Automatic annotation (TrEMBL):
Domain RxLR effector PexRD54 WY residues, every copy: 132-173, 484-521
Similarity remark: Belongs to the RxLR effector family.
A GO CC term attached to the entry: host cell
Origin: domain of life: Eukaryota
Protein name according to UniProt: RxLR effector PexRD54 WY domain-containing protein
Record's subcellular location: Host cell; Secreted
Coarse class of the protein's main subcellular location: host cell
Pfam families (alphabetical): PexRD54_WY (PF22748)
Keywords: Secreted, Signal, Virulence
Signal peptide: none
């Protein structure tokens, strides 16, 4: 076979495996082309050796005039082969698709390819061009907005996730990020732009998509993009939970697909901002309240699909981490109380075991705080009072130092009404017993008050006690102890005068009880100085 014949034969080879059955028509047409046209195989070979551009050959073969029939023309296959050979020789990629784009434009070429895919005879060729067009768009960094518009995905609205072209579009976004990592893009801005929706609208779109096995995967991809944007903008899990409005939906909390989305975001946020880490149970408790969450978790444990998550959240309610004692977080204690109330109401036989477990879960201080919070619940009152009495007695019987017992009993958190608390009176009696039994380790009952509440706190405690006939006596006792401390510290009467704010008493100063207190201090101060 001559060299010319060989080249002619190669150009007669189709690049479409599905077109074997049309080989005869193609051969006939090419014969006519060779015999009647100036574009002979020799010319194609010469143009190739000269490196003539694919655009130029496209024009010389009069292919630009074929319009919608382009892919059906036998000459087109010859030109594609020419462009492929030229690409190999010149090491220039995507000559076919770049030339076609220059000739037709992105939109028209896309429509041409889509139409050709419907014809079995040229489907394989059309599929190739579709792939190359997608690769070309990535190479020239065609924006997600433009491709979305070309695919007419904006017309799909709520069904967009089930549209086959949506998968292609998402792939385009992914490929852009892989090819151009220095300029990352996501699916979210385009979806918001063309559908005119906010985050809430996107969540609705994602939620619908995740309900179908056919669209679940692609919906999850969009979800990941949304969570990434939230994380980069430091949107808090609390704000996301508010935006989701899960509590407004007629779907149990843990069965709602949006809850799964939110749980995923909490993990992302905590990983991205470890210094601002927050737990799901804390956020849920702040949002919905202890009793609601406890009831929800109790019910969710009986459902297979939510049992694991419910169990984990329930454990988080009852597990106190090492930072908890320093935070002294009321929501968590209240959550524990709410949980026990549900148990006491619905499964009372389990209550004794749970209360027993609390003894090893909580330290003395937290356990007593918990028991105090549980007293208002009638279903728990009897059991917690009994356990509280046992725990207080145990603290006293093991002869803790009074200042430590003060802390363990939670007396440092009783506020201005501490002197009316029966537990404070018990503790004062304990101090007397301790000092009697330990003459060489005497401790002051006033010292913990001053340390934990400060001087102004003690002043407010005294003021509150003086307004209650039942605590007036002990209030005066604290007042005397305060004066004694001042004397021991040798505070100047002028400092005490300022502390008592007598300068603001005006004309009433002489009848003020504080003035009487100050004059007593002045007298004692002067007497002490004389003795020295």
């Amino acid at each position: 076979m001559s060299e010319t014949a060989a080249y002619s034969t190669r150009f007669l080879r189709t690049i479409d495996p599905d077109a074997v059955e049309e080989r005869a028509p193609v051969v006939d047409t090419l014969k006519a082309l060779v015999t009647s046209s100036e574009v002979t195989p020799d010319k194609l070979r010469n143009w190739l050796s000269e490196g003539k551009s694919a655009d130029s050959v496209f024009t010389r073969m009069h292919l630009a005039k074929t319009k919608d029939m382009l892919l059906k023309r036998p000459q087109f296959r010859s030109w594609v082969q020419y462009a492929d050979d030229l690409s190999k020789a010149s090491k220039k990629e995507m000559l076919v698709i770049s030339t076609l784009t220059a000739q037709y434009g992105d939109d028209a070429l896309y429509k041409l390819i889509e139409s050709a895919k419907l014809d079995p005879k040229i489907k394989t060729l059309a599929n190739r061009l579709e792939r190359e067009q997608m690769q070309y768009w990535v190479a020239v960094r065609k924006s997600p907005d433009d491709v979305f518009r070309i695919y007419k995905l904006d017309e799909a609205k709520q069904t967009v996730l089930s549209t086959p072209k949506f998968v292609n579009w998402v792939k385009h976004v992914d490929d852009l990020n892989a090819k151009h990592p220095e300029q990352p893009v996501t699916t979210i801005p385009t979806l918001k732009k063309y559908f005119n929706i906010d985050d809430e609208g996107l969540l609705s779109l994602i939620s619908v998509g995740k309900q179908s096995e056919r669209t679940k995967s692609i919906a999850s991809k969009v979800e990941d993009d949304l969570l990434q944007i939230w994380g980069n903008s430091k949107k808090t899990p609390d704000a996301v939970l508010d935006e989701m409005r899960i509590d407004k939906m007629n779907i149990p909390l843990l069965e709602n697909s949006l809850f799964t989305t939110w749980a995923k975001y909490v993990s992302i946020f905590n990983a991205k901002y470890p210094n601002e880490k927050r737990t799901m149970i804390e956020i849920l408790t702040r949002k919905f309240g202890d009793q609601y969450i406890t009831h929800i978790l109790y019910k969710a444990k009986s459902i297979d699909t939510t049992k694991t998550m419910a169990t984990q959240l329930e454990s988080a309610q009852l597990t106190i981490d090492h930072d908890f004692s320093s935070r002294n977080s009321p929501p968590i204690l209240n959550a524990c109380v709410s949980y026990l109330n549900v148990i006491a109401t619905e499964s009372p036989t389990k209550l004794p075991i749970l209360l027993s477990n609390l003894k090893t879960t909580f330290d003395d201080r937290l356990l007593l705080q918990f028991l105090e919070a549980a007293k208002p619940f009638r279903s728990l009152e009897r059991a917690v009072v009994k356990l509280e009495t046992e725990k207080i007695r145990a603290i006293f019987e093991r002869r803790e130092q009074p200042k430590e017992a003060f802390r363990l009993l939670g007396l440092d958190g009783k506020g201005n009404t501490i002197l009316s608390n029966p537990l404070f009176k018990e503790w004062m009696d304990y101090v007397k017993i301790f000092n009697r039994e330990n003459p060489n380790k005497q401790e002051s009952w006033f010292y913990p008050l001053r340390i934990h509440y400060g001087w102004y706190g003690v002043k407010n405690i005294i003021k509150t006690a003086m307004n209650n006939p039942n605590t007036e006596k002990i209030g005066k006792q604290v007042e005397i102890a305060m004066l004694k401390q001042w004397l021991e510290a040798n505070h100047n009467p002028s400092e005490v005068f300022k502390f008592l704010k007598l300068g603001k008493a005006g004309k009433e100063i002489m009848s003020s009880r504080k003035f009487s207190l100050w004059t007593k201090y002045l007298s004692d101060y002067n007497l002490t100085r004389k003795r020295r």
